[in-house]
Write a structure and sequence with these properties.
four-stranded antiparallel beta sheet; binds adenosine-5'-triphosphate; ATP-binding; alpha/beta; six-stranded mixed beta sheet; ABC_transporter-like_CS; 10 strands; ABC_transporter-like_ATP-bd
């Protein structure tokens, strides 16, 4: 065992004839934040989708805790998907507008067969508190929350799956600058408390420098440094 949480080896992802990711390799340890930086269209989000196995790569390997994911069937992937959770850019768009916050946070527990009617509500309360939200928010719907609060709900939902790795694709880019620092501090605290690994996509150099342990620069689907 290498001890890496995530290893990506010679990853290639194509959209038709266009190669979006062209031989990308990197590794990430537990508790580490690795940033992917580079101009728009260089392949950052596609790399993230391939790590999440939401886009199956055309070539290369994605190893999570030493297990190669690309060869696994959907059925074999299911228990591992839980451990690799995404947080996307659009805080409102990633929450179902009709669902109350409690249902959104409880959803992973229910889908994964881990919902216990006796202890579930307290678990939801604990998750909301963990991301800095008052438990009374459980009864609200997304339109009653600010962008920063919605992003905290998205993080609580990710934590409900007890992940080891978060794939954070521009998690604060859509937020008001005044609330970005709060969400980044929350993410840093969670990483340090839970020993999570972060694959962090962000085009804000100041944020990347402050938040990431290491930065990989991409251009035209390749790593440049
Ligand atoms: N679903 C898709 N179908 C076809 N081409 C795509 C698709 N998604 C992305 N691409 C192309 O793949 C390349 C890499 O895109 P990707 O979104 O991964 O880059 P990015 O670095 O994340 O960009 P951004 O910072 O703008 O999100 C681009 O040329 C893009 O146009």
């Amino acid at each position: 065992m290498s001890g890496y949480l995530l290893e990506v080896r010679d990853l290639v992802v194509r959209y038709g004839a266009a190669t979006a990711v062209d031989g990308v390799s990197f590794a990430l340890s537990p508790g580490e934040t690795l940033a992917l930086d580079g101009p728009s269209g260089c392949g950052k989000s596609t790399t993230a989708l391939a790590v999440l196995q939401l886009r199956r790569p055309d070539a290369g390997e994605v190893l999570f805790e030493g297990r190669e994911l690309t060869a696994l069937s959907e059925r074999e992937l299911r228990p591992l998907r839980r451990r690799v959770q995404p947080v996307f850019q659009d805080p409102y768009g990633s929450l179902s507008p009709r669902h109350r916050i409690r249902d959104t946070v409880a959803e992973p527990l229910k889908v994964q067969g881990r919902w216990n009617p006796d202890t579930g509500p307290a678990k939801v309360t604990e998750l909301l508190e963990r991301v800095g939200l008052d438990p009374s928010y459980a009864a609200r719907r997304p339109h009653e929350l600010s962008g920063g609060q919605c992003q905290r709900v998205g993080i609580a939902r990710a934590l409900a799956s007890e992940p080891r790795l978060l794939v954070l694709d521009e998690p604060v880019s859509a937020l008001d600058p005044s609330v970005r620092a709060g969400v980044l501090n929350l993410l840093a605290d969670l990483r340090d408390e839970l020993g999570l690994g972060y694959l962090f996509i962000c085009h804000d150099r100041a944020v990347v420098r402050h938040f990431a342990d290491r930065v990989i620069e991409m251009r035209d689907g390749r790593i440049t440094s």
